[in-house]
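Q: For a teaching handout, I want to show students what a protein-ligand complex looks like in token form. Below are the inputs, and the small molecule is zinc ion. Please produce the holo structure.
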Amino acid sequence: MHNLSPEERTQIQLERLQSTLNRAYRNVPFHQNRKNRKGEAIDIERFQIESIKDLSNLPFMERKHLGEYYPYGLFAVPLRDIVRIHTASGTTLNPTVSGYTRHDLLVWQEMVSTALTASKITAHDILQINLDPGLANWGRDYKDGAESIEASVIPNTHLSIEKQLKVLKDYKTSVLITTPASASQLAGHIGSGTDLNPADLNLKTLILVGEPAGLEPRNLLEEQLHATTWLHYGLSEVPGPAIAFECENHKGLHVNEDNFIPEIVDIETGELLPEGETGELILTALTTRAFPLIRFKTGDRARFIQDTCSCGCPFKRIEWFEERTDDMLLINGVKVHQKLILLHIEDALGFVPGRYCFFKSQQGETSCLEVWITVDDTLFSDEIKALEKLMKTVEDKLHENIGVPVSIRLKEKHSFQNHC
Ligand SMILES: [Zn+2]
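A: Here is the structure, written as tokens, with zinc ion included.
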């Protein structure tokens, strides 16, 4: 759609939006029973969107809705049309389940290839994907997108840092797709005692996904790995990566407006903000058939960059900030909801711990979720031992459910003062 005039592009967006809303309201009870932002019931027979601006009259979709309609309640097509089902941890004990039709997967492949092409990746590149199991679906999408531009792909496999580096060097990888945290670990490992010199690597491009990365850490990574960094934005639960991407100017991320409408709203009131102000990023999918996201609250903090980009890409740009609008923790690109952690612990213990806190920590080469919970000072040592054993089970269960390693520590109350 790059050769279209702005008016033609807006018209196509509007038609896609109308078609998506129509499909969602006709096929998904969740959308049928919703009210508009004024609290009035939406009559699907009369409901019309006459301009993109009308979108702001619609209610938001939130992460909690994805769990409430587990597993297939938000699908807008029959199951026979679904070719891939993806599961991710959500905000309740039920995971979020998203589905893709064959058409959806092709759209996604095209979106990823658009983003990779903007990052100057070509058929001559050797592309290595290194993402945590919690971002496994992104690994598949990047593989498909990169193969479609005929790059040579080393698919996502869980490897130790030593093996990743061996592949990076021996296979002459020119593009690495990973999270900022994993890239830092890799760079740190090269700098600490290995005989590997970054100048001996063929790496030229580092695609950073899953978490925003500030200028300073990016400069450091570029210096350490002798590569240029490019930031991509996506949703780890639904539906995938490369929704927004950097161009050669590296000044914000272009949102793929052929497939998504971005809005920035006030975090407190939900009202649209004037262009350029920082708020919550809201996304509406235009081309997704199986799993329509309509005004989805991403929890990501962003602002629109107002001036046009000299790269020629017509898509709007956003600046993406590290701080979130909700209480989710980002661990290696995987979003972890604090309420969910508490639900799992409560489920295992049968009660809510008196005091608890969660934070991201580093265990050797791995980023993990560290959970501290209080133990009663009056517990006997054999009771504490039994509790520790139970916590190991909870750690494994949490790891399985949220896709990142978990370490639970039993602490006495006074330990919390300096940390939580
Ligand atoms: Zn640009």
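A: Two things your students might notice: Residues 202 and 282 are 38 Å apart (CA to CA). The chain has a mean pLDDT of 89.
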